[in-house]
Amino acid sequence: LGKKTLTELIEPLDDRIQGVTDFLTDVNRDVELKISEIQDPFGPAIVDPQLECIVGSQETEKGCTAINEKRKEKGLSQLDIHCIELVEDVERRGPHEEEKISSSSMRSRILGQRLLKARKSWDKSEGPYIIGLTGGSASGKSSLGKRFQKLGAGLVDCDKLGHLAYQPGSPTLDKLVKEFGDSVLSEDGTVNRRALGAIVFSDKSQLTKLNQIVWPEISRMAGEQATELYQSGHKVVLLDAAVLIEADWHLNCHEVWVCIVPRETAIERIVERDNKSKEEAQKRIDSQMSNRDRCKIANSVFCTLWDPEITQKQAESAWTRLTKELQL
């Protein structure tokens, strides 16, 4: 599954098995079902002596032939191969979708759509409708946030707030010095990020301590900015935050929107954008929450893999849907 498009949106195995079961039962209730998970290129077809026929498509015909070759090696009977013709997708929405009807294209069409209901109800008179926007490094979440800002949303950049949270004279900076010592200060009284990083990134327990000090302050500042944006007329406010879920800020959001790209794409972008080695980029991605785990709680998912125009269509579709739902 790793090579498929938008693997994060593929249904869990049990759900897919149930879907196949329901379909086959609807076709013929007298059929005896034996459904197996395929964990290699061949599956049970090269070892089950009871099989007589294999159904494939024009794309997988060579694979069916390969299965028969494996069966011959094992002394098993040859399977009748029944190939189904590919069906043209007359609703194809662009070059990023396949010409034939496919599950990959179906997954791309749910980008920007509602996957889960809102996490909590909203009272328009009490404050903004808050959407937490998150994603891994180089996922394109910040550029996506700016698209929503142009469409009318208020935008809070929580990642930038992280740099403002411990300015000289702030209570947060005092807490940092108390916890990590004067060595984390530069001569001008600001945080020495290199020195602080050397402490926290070599010891997870120290990183946890840092987060416990800084995250609450970022959350407070984000709340203040969201309120200011609401008072200036923005009914919907997006919190752009890389650690939205890790910091539990999503618990205060009405929705969570997740931006994803394939792992290899993220690595390539980090290498090009940040002048990092491939190994450094891989370590950065591996140190973060996975796309799949983010998508598990996402109310909507977006992907910036393709041309900017496609991302813009996702954003416009989501914004139009949301404003209708909220009656804005």
Description of the structure:
It is a single chain. By secondary structure, the chain is an alpha/beta fold. It is built from 12 helices and 7 strands. The protein has helices at residues 13-27, 61-73, 103-108, 141-151, 158-164, 171-180, 193-200, 204-231, 263-274, 278-286, 291-296, 308-326, and strands at 53-57, 80-84, 129-135, 154-157, 236-240, 255-260, 300-303. The protein has a 5-stranded parallel sheet, with helices on both faces. It has a two-stranded parallel sheet with strand order 1-2. Helix 4 crosses helix 12 (308-326), helix 5 (158-164) crosses helix 8 and helix 9 (263-274) crosses helix 10. The model has no long low-confidence stretch (mean pLDDT 94).
Brief characterization of the structure:
With 328 residues, the chain is α/β, with parallel strands linked by helices.
Low-confidence stretches are: none
Query: How confident overall, as mean pLDDT?
Result: 94
Helix fraction?
Answer: 40-55%
**Helices and strands, in N-to-C order?**
HEHEHEHEHHHHEEHHHEH
